[in-house]
Design goal:
- The structure is a single chain.
- By secondary structure, the protein is mainly beta.
- It has a domain at 7-39 and 49-108: OB fold (Dihydrolipoamide Acetyltransferase, E2P) (Beta Barrel), CATH 2.40.50.140.
- The protein is built from 1 helix and 6 strands.
- It has one helix at 60-69, and strands at residues 7-13, 18-21, 27-38, 49-59, 75-88, 94-107.
- Strands 1-3-4-6-5 form a 5-stranded mixed beta barrel.
- The longest helix is centred in the middle third of the chain and has 10 residues, at 60-69.
- The chain is globular and about 55 Å long.
């Protein structure tokens, strides 16, 4: 019987990505993503906002790209599978961590032009009036 384990989130990176290497030299980058849900106004007229946090793990070339291009606050699309890890903490308590093992990450923040960017003569003017068109 077929099965599917897939999750997609779009949100803001919660902190600076952290890149490490396994003992075999394989790169792995972890980062968190915050998503927001705004509910309709209730009886009190207040809109409520809920924030959900996701831990994301990227491996190999994707890990290198995430480490290079992501930063706190950047908008990101992360797609992958959910993985649950369980371990016993130093205090003897069982711990559980649910994370997204990324298969695809898209960097959604556009790189804006520098505020003092100089225009070249070859660049088209910003506003073109109909009378400016030569035909």
């Amino acid at each position: 019987m077929p099965s599917l384990n897939k999750i997609t989130v779009i949100g803001n990176v919660g902190g600076e990505p952290e890149m490490r290497f396994t003992p075999n030299g394989k790169p792995v980058t972890t980062f968190s993503v915050a998503t927001n849900y705004v509910s309709a106004a209730g009886a009190d007229g207040e809109r409520k906002q809920e924030t959900e946090w996701f831990n994301v793990v990227a491996w190999d070339r994707l890990a290198e790209q995430c480490n290079q291009f992501l930063a706190k606050g950047k908008l990101v699309y992360a797609e992958g599978r959910l993985r649950t890890r369980k371990w016993e903490g130093k205090d003897g308590q069982m711990r559980t961590n649910i994370e997204i093992v990324a298969s695809r990450v898209l960097f959604l923040d556009r790189r804006g032009a520098a505020p003092n960017e100089e225009k070249t003569e070859d660049a088209p003017p910003g506003d073109i009036e109909p009378d400016d068109i030569p035909f």
